[in-house]
Amino acid sequence: IGYEDREKVDAYFSSIRDVEKRIERQQQWVNTRKPGVPPLMERPTTFHENLDLMYELTALALQHDSTRVASIELPAGGLPIILDGNQLSGYHGQSHHGKDPEVIDELVRIEQMHIRSLEKFITRLKGIVDDDAYLFDRTQILFGSGMGNGSSHSNKNLPVLVAGGDLNHTGKDIIFEEGKTPLCNVFVTMLQKLGIETEKFANSTGNINNELA
Q1: Crossing angle, helix 47-63 and helix 3-27, to 10 degrees?
Q2: What's the rounded Cα separation, in Å, for the pair 74 and 113?
Q3: CA gyration radius for the chain?
Q4: How far apart are CA 93 and CA 52, in angstroms?
Q5: SS3 of 59, please?
Q6: CA-CA distance, 187 to 84, in Å (whole number)?
Q7: What is the distance between the alpha carbons of residues 11 and 152, in angstroms, rounded to a whole number?
Q8: Which is the most buried residue in 22, 47, 121, 193, by most CB within 10 A?
Q9: pLDDT tens digits, 160-183
Q10: Are the C-beta atoms of residues 61 and 75 closer than 8 Å to each other?
């Protein structure tokens, strides 16, 4: 193979080996005797590392064309989270903040961490060349939540971030009128941008091509 192709192959296998080493380091702890600490302190220190690892595995799978669809669910259990050396309560508890300023402050810190991990993933895709374009430009990313307000379990006013996929979203902060635009309208636009000829998805009432396409 040519020099450029050889470089791509070397870079890909180097990335694979790096991920394998990170997984091996985690597996080494399986049979390691646990210290005498409260059970809830066992996993939180690796929460963010695991999230970054899942994003890296996703990037490699997309790069190798092992898959063209990937879904990552951010855990929302009751385990505490270690952030910047401080122990925070579980993410699920924070989402039911009851408008308590201190709880909201912790929730914001956790979600800022989520965004930083997403930023690393996007930067990673922007650095992978896929034929004549970057993988980021050929990958649609949808990041968001099924709830606009965790305290009331409301699924209205959902915060949704769209990136990549050659969509016209750069620098845009779009706010739709409450109750007028189903999230599925976003899905219709994304599907159409992928070349899928459809005017309907679930409870969609149209699309948002004027904003994103």
Answers
A1: 150
A2: 11
A3: 20
A4: 23
A5: helix
A6: 36
A7: 47
A8: 121
A9: 999 999 888 877 888 888 888 999
A10: no
**Residue 197 scores a pLDDT above 50:** yes
Using an 8 Å Cβ cutoff, are 94 and 107 in contact?
Answer: yes
Q: CA-to-CA distance for 75 and 53, rounded, in angstroms? A: 14
pTM for this predicted structure = 0.77
The residue count of the chain comes to: 213
Helical residues (DSSP H) of 127-213, grouped into ranges? 184-193, 209-212
DSSP 74: P
CA angle, 78 then 80 then 82, to 5°: 150
Copy the structure tokens of residue 109: 């810190």
Amino acid, res. 110: I
- Tell me the C-alpha to C-alpha distance, in Å, between residue 116 and each of 10, 49, 96, 209: 28, 12, 22, 28
Q: What's the CA angle centered on 95, arms 94 and 100, to 5 degrees?
A: 60
- Encoded amino acid at 119, one letter: E
pLDDT-based confidence at residue 23 (cuts at 50, 70, 90): confident
Q: Can you state the angle between helices 47-63 and 101-126, rounded to 10 degrees?
A: 30
- 73 burial type by CB count under 10 A (0-12 exposed, 13-18 middle, 19+ buried): exposed
